[in-house]
C-alpha cells in the first residue's frame, strides 16, 4: 500500500492531504479513522433505508469517502452533511471525493455551516474529535436539536488527544458515553442521546479589548476566543496610521481585531478580512458590522489571499498561523508572505507579528529584499517589509 492508499473492508480509498506538498510523508488519515471505518462496516443494515448522516471534522475526507463507497457497495442510499470549520479541509474532502469516483444516485453530499444548527434529525452522527474541545462541545450541544434516541453517535480520537474531561463533557451535553478499547493508540467514543439534559452553551463569547476600546464576539473555534493574543497586543501598539484612502487587508483575521484597529487608525481606508476558518470570518463579520457600521469592508473565507487581486492592496497586516489544522507547519506563513507580495501595490507594506524563534525576518528579507524590525518583546517581533 502506498502512503495515499487506505485499505478498508470494502476496498481501497485513495486519499491525499491538502495542501499537497512534495515529499509529504504524512498520511491523510490516522488510526482513529481506521477504527471508525471498521466500526461502520460492522453495523448491520447501516444502509437499510435512506439514512441521514452528519460527518463532523473529517479532516481530509476518509470517513465521507468511505460512507459514499459503502452506500454504493451495499446498494443503500445516504445523504451526508459534512461540517468542518476549515476551508482547506473542505477542499481536501471535495478533491478526495472526486478522486474516488462520483455516484450521485446512492449518495448526496453537502457542506453545512458550522455556525448554524441544521434543521433535520440525523440517523448517524460521526465525528473526529477536534483539538479544540470548546468548539466540539459547542457543536455537540447545538446538534442536540438534530438527535433522537435512535441517533447513532460515534466518534474517533487518538488516545493522546482524548482527555477524560471530553468524556465527562459529552456525558453532560449529549448523554451516557463509553469508549472502546484502544487499538493502534486510538479509541472510539459512543454516546447515547439523553433528551432530558439541558446543557448551557457559552458560545459565542465576548470580551473587551482595552487596547482598541471595543468588545469582540467569538465563535467557539476562533483563535484567541477568550483573551487577546500577546503577539497581537504587540502589533496593536505600533500599528501604522494614515488619512489616505488605502486598501488594507487583515490576513488570517481571526475575530478581526487587527483590522478593526487598522480601521480606527486609518479613517479613510477600505478593509478586507481573510481567514480559512468559517467561524473566524463569521466572528469578524459580526464584529465589524457592530464596530465599523459605515465602513467599506469585504470578507473572504479563503486560503491565504486567494481571490484578492494582484497589485491591489496598500497594506497587509498579519499574525500568521504556524500550523495548518492539526499539523505544525511553517508553510502557511510562507504562502501568506508570497501571496502578500503579489497582492501589494508597488510601495505597499506587509506588517507581521510572530514568535521570534520562527525566523520570519530571514524569510521576508529573502522575498521582499528588505525587512525592518518595528518592535520586539522577549518572545515576539513585529516586522515590516516594503514591496519595491
Ligand atoms: C495566529 S491566528 C491570528 C488571528 C487574529 N489575526 C489575531 O491576531 O487574533 C492565525 C489565523 O490564521 C488562520 N489561518 C490558518 N491557516 C490559514 C490559511 N491557509 N488561510 C487563511 N487563514 C488561515 C487561522 O484560522 C487563524 O484565525
Automatic annotation (TrEMBL):
Q: Which keywords does this chain's UniProt record carry?
A: Cytoplasm, Methyltransferase, rRNA processing, S-adenosyl-L-methionine, Transferase
The RlmG N-terminal domain covers which part of the protein? Answer: 4-193
Query: What cellular-component terms does GO give this entry?
Result: cytoplasm
InterPro entries linked to this entry: DNA_methylase_N6_adenine_CS (IPR002052), RLMG (IPR017237), RlmG_N (IPR058679), RsmC/RlmG (IPR046977), SAM-dependent_MTases_sf (IPR029063), Small_mtfrase_dom (IPR007848)
Location in or out of the cell: Cytoplasm
As one GO molecular function, the record gives: nucleic acid binding
Ranges for domain Methyltransferase small come to 214-384
Reaction(s) catalysed (UniProt annotation)? guanosine(1835) in 23S rRNA + S-adenosyl-L-methionine = N(2)-methylguanosine(1835) in 23S rRNA + S-adenosyl-L-homocysteine + H(+)
- E.C. code: 2.1.1.174
Q: Which domain of life is it from?
A: Bacteria
Q: Where are the transmembrane segments?
A: none
Q: What is this protein for, i.e. what is its function?
A: Specifically methylates the guanine in position 1835 (m2G1835) of 23S rRNA.
List, alphabetically, the PANTHER family matched: RIBOSOMAL RNA LARGE SUBUNIT METHYLTRANSFERASE G, RIBOSOMAL RNA SMALL SUBUNIT METHYLTRANSFERASE C
Family assignment from sequence similarity: Belongs to the methyltransferase superfamily. RlmG family.
Q: Which HAMAP family match?
A: 23SrRNA_methyltr_G
Kindly provide the name given to this protein in its UniProt entry. Answer: Ribosomal RNA large subunit methyltransferase G
Organism of origin is Alkalimarinus sediminis
Amino acid at each position: 500500500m502506498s502512503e495515499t492508499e487506505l485499505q478498508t473492508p470494502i476496498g481501497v480509498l485513495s486519499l491525499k492531504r491538502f495542501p499537497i506538498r512534495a515529499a509529504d510523508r504524512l498520511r491523510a488519515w490516522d488510526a482513529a479513522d481506521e477504527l471508525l471505518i471498521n466500526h461502520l462496516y460492522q453495523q448491520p443494515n447501516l444502509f437499510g433505508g435512506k439514512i441521514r448522516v452528519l460527518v463532523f471534522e473529517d479532516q481530509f475526507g476518509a470517513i465521507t469517502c468511505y460512507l459514499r463507497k459503502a452506500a454504493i457497495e451495499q446498494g443503500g442510499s445516504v445523504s451526508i452533511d459534512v461540517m468542518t470549520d476549515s476551508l482547506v479541509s473542505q477542499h481536501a474532502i471535495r478533491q478526495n471525493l472526486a478522486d474516488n469516483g462520483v455516484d450521485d444516485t446512492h449518495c448526496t453530499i453537502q457542506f453545512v455551516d458550522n455556525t448554524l444548527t441544521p434543521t433535520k434529525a440525523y440517523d448517524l452522527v460521526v465525528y473526529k474529535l477536534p483539538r479544540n474541545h470548546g468548539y466540539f462541545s459547542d457543536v455537540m450541544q447545538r446538534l442536540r436539536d438534530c438527535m433522537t434516541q435512535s441517533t447513532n453517535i460515534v466518534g474517533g480520537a487518538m488516545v493522546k488527544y482524548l482527555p477524560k474531561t471530553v468524556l465527562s463533557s459529552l456525558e453532560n451535553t449529549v448523554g451516557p458515553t463509553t469508549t472502546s478499547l484502544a487499538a493502534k493508540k486510538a479509541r472510539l467514543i459512543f454516546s447515547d442521546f439523553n433528551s432530558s439534559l439541558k446543557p448551557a452553551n457559552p458560545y459565542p463569547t465576548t470580551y473587551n479589548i482595552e487596547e482598541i476600546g471595543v468588545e469582540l464576539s467569538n465563535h467557539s473555534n476562533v483563535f484567541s476566543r477568550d483573551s487577546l493574543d500577546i503577539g497581537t497586543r504587540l502589533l496593536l501598539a505600533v500599528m501604522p496610521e494614515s488619512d489616505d484612502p488605502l486598501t488594507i487587508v487583515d490576513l488570517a483575521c481571526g475575530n478581526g481585531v487587527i483590522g478593526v484597529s487598522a480601521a480606527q487608525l486609518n479613517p479613510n481606508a477600505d478593509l478586507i478580512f481573510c481567514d480559512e476558518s468559517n467561524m473566524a470570518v463569521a466572528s469578524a463579520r459580526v464584529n465589524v458590522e457592530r464596530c465599523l457600521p459605515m465602513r467599506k469592508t469585504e470578507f473572504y473565507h479563503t486560503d491565504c489571499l486567494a481571490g484578492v487581486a494582484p497589485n491591489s492592496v496598500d497594506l497587509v497586516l498579519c499574525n500568521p498561523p504556524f500550523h495548518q489544522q492539526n499539523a505544525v507547519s511553517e508553510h502557511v506563513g510562507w504562502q501568506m508572505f508570497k501571496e502578500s507580495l503579489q497582492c501589494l501595490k508597488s510601495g505597499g507594506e506587509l506588517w507581521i507579528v510572530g514568535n521570534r524563534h520562527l525566523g520570519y525576518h530571514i524569510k521576508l528579507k529573502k522575498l521582499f529584499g528588505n525587512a525592518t524590525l518595528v518592535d520586539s518583546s522577549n518572545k515576539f517581533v513585529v516586522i515590516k517589509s516594503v514591496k519595491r
